[in-house]
């Protein structure tokens, strides 16, 4: 079939196409949302609510697609990874508390300087931690650790004692739109993988059904690429 097209090339063509479409959908979407707001008082509340929720869902997918298509690191600066992680954990604290989930972050070092695009890394941490919270419907613990590899790279490990991922599903995680959640887009992990790769790092997922999931993120200290 199309063996001449490398998988990566294929992905980048699809990425460009998706970004183009996402961009074009955005403007009419904003227009429709505005008019739905206007119509609110003129129709049954439950119908306008459904319309608004569905429009917001389109917005989420379009937003994810746009991020996916533009993961290139633009401007890197040196930041403290420990502080960045602490801020991210704080950001998710209300969602965690609402779900009876505790998030603990234990860095090996008090300060871990890293050259990166902080907002992109923050997005990775948010996606991973949100998945972990969502894997703990009855509450539980999320442990994040930071250590150094022998080759001086940084290792971040995110563990939850949630429901875990069956083997056959684990294999499908890289696929776009593969989600087991009613409101999921199945783009979160793809976005994470892209961003980490664009920082010269890598991502790994270990999961045992009924025991939990560990996501390992490896990042070079001076992530030049
Ligand atoms: P979404 O969260 O929108 O479903 P993601 O790409 O973030 O998309 O995740 C894809 C799927 O991977 C999820 O639907 C879920 O089935 C699985 N998953 C990801 N992280 C975890 C986790 N920590 N525990 C269990 N399942 C997970
Ligand atoms: Mg997710």
UniProtKB/TrEMBL annotation:
Histidine kinase domain: residues covered: 20-223
What UniProt keywords apply to this chain's record, in alphabetical order?
ATP-binding, Coiled coil, Kinase, Nucleotide-binding, Phosphoprotein, Transferase, Two-component regulatory system
rRNA-binding as a keyword of this entry, yes or no, is: no
Q: Could you state a single Gene Ontology molecular function term?
A: ATP binding
Biological processes annotated in GO:
regulation of DNA-templated transcription
Protein name stated in the entry = histidine kinase
- State the organism of origin: Pullulanibacillus pueri
Q: Which gene does this sequence derive from?
A: kinA
Q: Which residues of the full protein are shown?
A: 261 to 485 of 485
